[in-house]
Amino acid sequence: MELVHQIKQDGIAKGLCRLWQMKLKPGLGVDSLAELYIRGIDFCIKNDYPTLDFLRTNFKGKCEDYGVYVDDEVVEKNRKDVVLNGGCKAMLEYDGFAVSNIYIRHNSKASVNVGDHAIVTIDIFDNSYLAIAVAGGDAEVLVNVYGNATVETVGGKVKIIRTNKNTY
Predict the structure, then answer these.
(1) Which alpha helices (DSSP H) does the chain contain, by range?
(2) Which terminus of the chain is more solvent-facing, meaning fewer CB atoms within 10 Å of its CB: N or C?
(3) 8-state DSSP, 105
(4) Contacts of 96 (CB under 8 A, 6+ apart)
(5) Which residues contact 97 (CB under 8 A, 6 or more apart)?
(6) Can you give the pLDDT at residue 137?
(7) 83-115: per-residue pLDDT in tens?
(8) End-to-end Cα, the chain, rounded Å
(9) What are the residues facing 124 on neighbouring strands?
(10) What angle is formed at CA 31 by the lines to CA 102 and CA 115, rounded to 5 degrees?
(11) What pairing do the DSSP bridges indicate for beta strands 109-114 and 129-134?
């Protein structure tokens, strides 16, 4: 079965709306699929879609250039969107006027350094771990904590919201 067709069928089974079903056209490349994954990340995380096993089998080694990682060691600077799936270990850095969204899932561990005027929003899920350091008075970080995730902070403006939910 073609990959996009399988993704579409799995999505339909999890309640994917008609508008998003139409976006999943045959022949889409990994770049387009990664973009759709990030744009629809709330549905994907809430419904565990695609599953971690599906991501490992079909996207590991193919989606890293687009900010989607599976069980990887990650070093990034000022990447707009980052999704850490599985058991990633990440060192992420943001400075200047960078604006970013980070999603940390499963058992991933991330260290994030934010400085200058950067604005970063982090959603952390499951049993993930986040260590965040903020330097400078103008950098801002918002962390939304879901599940049993652990967050440690050092310095700067970090607003932590503990949702008391497992997902969105």
Answers:
(1) 3-13, 18-23, 30-39, 41-46, 52-58
(2) N
(3) -
(4) 78, 116, 117, 118
(5) 116, 117, 118
(6) 84
(7) 999 999 999 999 999 999 999 999 999 999 999
(8) 31
(9) 104, 145
(10) 25
(11) parallel
